[in-house]
Request: fold
Amino acid sequence: MSILNKDPVKRVEKFLKEYDSNLKVTLLDNSARTALEAAASLNCKVGAIVKSLLFRAKNTFILCLVAGDKKASLIKIKKIINVKDVSMASAEEVKNVTGFTIGGVSPVGHLNKIDIYIDNSLERFDNLYAAAGHPNCVFKVDYSNLQKMTKGLIKEISE
Reply:
């Protein structure tokens, strides 16, 4: 079975096509499980890779989209959402909440509705690359469309 036929990738592809028929999932020859691997495969700056990081906040989850060359700041996230107890979601939680495995978590096409925060440092890049449901699949999008398609709130959430 081709990677492109896997359900998580098909979910992302369906979302992208409904949003803009020009957006497409790209299958990479090498893994893009980490931002460094993705940047090497795409021959782009590490910061242009969108890391989709799921955090647990009390009884809910939030997805933070952060540049590949930055780290999500728990302190900033806690202040923004006004919750003291925030932590990275476990691999099992990531799979259950988003429908994706770590390394392939897309900003779109989740199984459940999730509040999304987009780090303002991503605005530096003309083109961004985000995971598309599998560690070898990505899609290219600009900052404005990333914000529109995710309905994410733009905040300073990185350090």
